[in-house]
Description:
Keywords: Lysosome, Membrane, Transmembrane, Transmembrane helix, Transport. Belongs to the battenin family. It is a multi-pass membrane protein. One of its GO terms (biological process) is lysosome organization. The chain is mainly α and 411 residues long. The chain has a single domain (2-27, 43-206, 243-409), classed as Growth Hormone, Chain: A (Up-down Bundle). The protein contains 15 helices and no strands. It has helices spanning 2-16, 18-30, 61-81, 87-106, 111-135, 142-167, 172-178, 181-193, 206-223, 245-276, 289-308, 319-339, 345-373, 376-386, 388-409. Mean pLDDT is 80; it is low at 32-48 and 208-238.
Amino acid sequence: MLLGLCNNFAYVVMLSAAHDILEKQESRNETASTSASLHVDFQVGNSSNSSIYDCNPVSTAAVLLADILPTLFIKLFAPFVIHKMPYGVRVLFCAIMAATSFLLVSFSSAVWMSILGVIFASISSGLGELSFLSLTVFFSRSVLEGWGSGTGAAGLIGAFLYSGLIQAGLSPRITLLIMLVVPIIMFISYFFLLVCPPSLPQWRTKETEYAALVSEDRQQLLDSSDDEEPESSTTEDQPTGPLSFRERLSVIRGLWRFVLPLGVVYLTEYFINQGLMELLFFHNIFLTHAAQYRWYQTLYQLGVLLSRSSLRWLKIRKVWILSVLQFLNAVFLLLAVRYLFLPTVWLVFAFILYEGLLGGAAYVNTFHFISKETEDRHREFSMAAASVGDSLGITVAGLISLPVHTYFCSL
């Protein structure tokens, strides 16, 4: 659970900070002639914006794309080669990338520098998710529930801490620097707290481990110097060693029944989060625009945490039902943005919480049934490969959100 929390933390914080990241750079540009100081207030409003939606010039979807495209690239290609990198090296790399992302964004002086920091957070989260999902096959299946709860908790704790510390008066820079403790916790929890089974290669590649096992088996056969044939002749017909490229492609074809519904859920979910949330703004209430956006993200993550922790009590095999419900939710909120018929922010809070419940349930149930229904030999690769479903959906959502943002901001 702790590793799931640490892995997704930077990714979540970058999405929660998306509005502030863009507003910070806009305020820098507007005051470039006088802003020699590094202490820039993230809460500057868009007073020059004539749109009824109080838009940033750049959609928060731009931050989403920077936060998901590297993850998508990793999840598309890494399953074919990642077995060559030991788990210990992967986790160390992820912790370094997460720490670097916090430092870059907190000290950024231009949009490109902030986006680069977001990209580093994406690399850390994407490689970490793929690796830790594969890692669950070395433990009992109950570990998957802990992973789901941890990633859900990352969303809630990350969004809540960011929102709460900003609301308490800390600057975004100080807030992000405080969060550097999370990559350190990831390092400690994996290398010093996690009790790994003997079958898990930490600092050796999978090929090295397989070669060692084969050599050990051969030595045992030589030591048992009986003239009779070994009774395990049938096991010689079973494939050993890493999966071949053809086997991996075959496994991927069988995963589409899981990947497609998951991708649809995340497409509609992140279209709401990064395409519509910023536009669901209520004037003259107790929360500023930036504060409303942060608390939308926090409530969404609360829903994700609750549903990702529900596997013990509720299992949903037909994930496509969740994709239909999430699609309807996105259509309703799109109409709400266009015609502004929602009378209060509390209704938006309810719909955002419901959105998080659907998304979290789709995620944890998808991987539960993949783990349950996949052959033992294919399970490690399947868990890694199927993780591309949510990233594909999120990427398409980001691409759709950009023109939608431009359209509404032109009204």
